[in-house]
Specification:
The chain has twelve helices and 19 strands. By secondary structure, it is α/β, with parallel strands linked by helices. The protein is globular. The protein starts with a helix and ends with a strand. The relative contact order is 0.04.
């Protein structure tokens, strides 16, 4: 009995030791596999296919671009030799070689345990059938199905992608849309989606948005348009940066704007409202925008002095675009309220509002840096956006431009399309802080151009359509060598670059 007891003790001790030894050997073997580089023969096949790839520190392919290559389903079998692949671009494969890339070509993705990003966009023949393979790649986090033939019927299969963060279903074939409704939301909420591009959301479907709890941005098309009475359903979309809101009851009821304070990253806001004459403006809702912490830019359409006055109580705003404002309800005197906005840096105005009184008021906003007086929105740092032949007669005295000298930070002025003449250049040439001056389609001449020679900070000067000779522009450039000068010499392709 004693000997038998000793034998049992040895067996009990030996078993865990053996198991431990097995685990150590297995772990070591697995670790060794993780560091084996991609074979030369596999890289040769990728090269023959025309692929581009990147290797990690162990010499393993982790990034592969097969975009627009004439591939077949069988060509993709090489993917099975890339177990460490993380990013794969298969965009527009079918476009260049008939229909030899089909839904079944994606069966070769199965087993790629590390694949996180997959681009299948512009493969117009890929259908819902391809998702029976995609659902077996659970590591996917970003999936691009733009311009494919995917439909809503594919969502149940895609719902198995329990790590998917971003889904793109823009511009599907035959103008099909994946629409949010009672059925599609059941699949969409199974995925931890932070962003969905191209999801169509009819007004009646916005209540379903609350079921997409981890979503961070409004899942719409390129422009995030929404009715004000739907804002309460998107308060959880914390990464929304730009919204275009329609005030369904006009400016007389702006109460729904209060929900925007829940969006911490909202930076740009477009406000559309049907105009209702002789109806008081609801200022409280507009003033609630002051509680949107990151809001910096507002594009209000069809506004009057009352609306602008309410917006002036949002001290965080740095840019107000009024260039596209319709109607004649906003007056130059209504701009007086902007003088209290200590952070306002950019402002555009419709042409009809630009007169002597306007310029006097603008000169009292010392924070202004960029000023658009040409009826266009400020898009970037470059001029050249106005190519019309029609020149607008001036509604202000050119010497009134000297009022702008009082703005210490003014670095950009857009005066395209106005009948700006050489006399006006005398005043503009005294605004030492200018870095951008756009004078496209004006009536300046060679003799007046040299009035700008003292603008030592000027970086961009544009005068497309103005009667300026290139030799005069070159002469001016000698005084401001760091400036880029553009005109339409040689059909618009002549540029004098800054001296490095």
């Amino acid at each position: 009995m004693h000997n038998r007891s000793r034998f049992l003790t040895l067996v009990v001790v030996a078993i865990p030791l053996c198991v431990g030894a097995f685990l150590i050997v297995e772990t070591t073997h697995s670790s060794a596999l993780e560091t084996i580089p991609t074979s030369v023969s596999t890289l040769n096949v990728l090269e023959d296919l025309g692929g581009q790839w990147r290797l990690n520190e162990y010499g393993q392919v982790v990034w592969l671009n097969l975009k627009s290559l004439p591939l077949t389903d069988d060509d993709l079998s090489i993917l099975r030799q890339l177990p460490h692949l993380e990013i794969l671009n298969l965009r527009a494969i079918q476009v260049y070689k008939g229909d030899n890339f089909t839904d079944d070509g994606l069966k070769h993705l199965v087993g790629l345990r590390n694949l996180k990003t997959l681009d299948l966009s512009s493969n117009y023949r890929l259908t819902d059938a391809c998702t029976k393979w995609l659902m077996r790649v659970p590591s996917l986090r970003k999936l691009n199905l733009m311009q494919t033939a995917i439909t809503s019927d594919a969502l149940p299969n895609l719902s198995h992608l329990i790590k998917l963060r971003e889904l793109n279903v823009l511009y599907l074939r035959d103008h099909h849309h994946i629409t949010l409704n009672e059925e599609t939301v059941k699949s969409l909420r199974q995925m931890p989606l932070r962003e969905i591009l191209g999801l169509r959301i009819p007004h009646e479907a916005f209540p379903f948005m609350k079921q997409l709890k981890v979503l961070k941005k409004l899942p719409r098309n390129l422009y995030s348009k929404i009715r004000d009475d739907d804002l309460k359903h998107i308060r959880h979309l914390s990464q929304t940066g730009h919204l275009e809101v329609t005030l369904t009851r006009g400016w007389s009821d702006t109460s729904e704007l209060k929900h925007l304070s829940a969006l911490p990253n909202l930076e740009k806001l477009t406000l559309n409202a049907p105009w209702k004459p002789d109806v008081p403006v609801d200022r409280i809702g507009i003033r609630s925008l002051a509680k949107a912490p990151s809001l910096r830019t507002v594009y209000p359409y069809v506004v009057d002095d009352q609306v602008l006055e309410a917006l002036s109580h949002c001290p965080q705003l740095t840019k107000i675009e009024l260039a596209s404002n319709k109607g004649n309800r906003l007056t130059p005197s209504g701009l007086n309220c902007l003088t209290r906005m200590a952070n306002l840096k950019e402002l555009t105005l419709p042409r009809r509002m630009v007169n002597d009184r306007t310029l006097e008021i603008l000169s009292q906003i010392p924070s202004l840096e960029r000023l658009g007086l040409d009826g266009r929105m400020l898009v970037n740092d470059y001029g050249g956006g106005f190519f019309g032949d029609q020149v607008e007669p001036l509604r202000f005295r050119v010497d009134t431009l000297k009022e702008l000298i009082r703005l210490p930070h003014l670095n950009a002025i857009y005066l395209d399309g106005w009948a700006i003449n050489d006399e006006a250049l005398i005043s503009l040439g005294k605004i030492d802080s200018l870095e951008i001056l756009s004078l496209n389609s004006t009536v300046i001449t060679n003799s007046g151009l040299m009035h700008l020679r003292r603008l030592s900070n000027l970086k961009n000067l544009h005068f497309y359509g103005a009667p300026i000779d290139i030799d005069v522009a070159i002469q001016l450039h000698k005084f401001i060598p760091e400036c880029r000068i553009e005109d339409n010499w040689c059909c618009g392709c002549m540029t004098i670059d800054p001296v490095e």
